[in-house]
Amino acid sequence: MRYGVVSDIHGNLHALEAALDRLERERVDAYLCLGDLVGYGPYPNECVRRVRDLGALVVAGNHDLIAVGRLAPDGIGRLARESLDWTRPRLDADSRRFLEDLPAIAVPEPALVMTHGALGDPARYVSRPEDAAAELGRLRTEHPDASVLLLGHTHVPMVVAERTGRRIVRRARTLALPESERVVLNPGAVGQARQRLPHGWSLVLDTDARRAEFNVVRYDVGAGRRALAAHGLAAESFHRPPSIRRALRRRARRLVQR
Known about the structure:
There is one protein chain. This protein is of the alpha/beta class and 258 residues long. 33% of the residues lie in helices and 21% in strands. The chain has helices at 13-25, 44-54, 62-67, 78-87, 93-100, 129-142, 221-230, 244-257; strands at residues 2-6, 30-33, 57-58, 105-109, 112-115, 148-150, 158-161, 165-168, 173-176, 183-186, 200-206, 211-217. A hairpin with a 2-residue loop joins strand 4 and strand 5. Helix 2 crosses helix 5.
């Protein structure tokens, strides 16, 4: 089965359309969405409708849950809080109902489990190797037939295998998944880049061939920024490049770990 996987759309319709155009050309068999359809961006209803009309299997992201009152906004930053305050009253009835009904976890096939943040907690980040190892342990216990866990939330494309370890994906590439290991896959974000360049990501996951193809999603960033401005939303909502200070901290942490 070839799945087209998207995550963290965040109301960015320009990026979503570009991602889906690429996945359609890949001739995927089905679509999976790992949540956070709304928040940050000016097109919450349009993005919900687009994903719903695909017939995609969708799980709830923390922004989706906060937007409909299923999760408290504890621990989120100022930009996220302000954008959700903007989003909440603008959700139409159909979009609200769709988000209210989203499950926390879905199992498209026995070997594949999908959720947003972590198993049992859509607001928890799985970004460090030890976090991923803990999730793979839970996967082994709670879903013993599963070998792949799809997560979003961090906005960073990543692969973590039980024994092979972690690999951050920084460019478009296709990776073979280890045959005898459980794997965490994060496709990265469609709608809010957290890297130097303002582009999104999508994933084609072939569960028969055990192959993951990470695709860069280039879209009309200028049009997206003009839409943000027209709706009174922050210009940085679709692109939050890593700060130099944060990059230096990460580099120092890697040196210490070595």
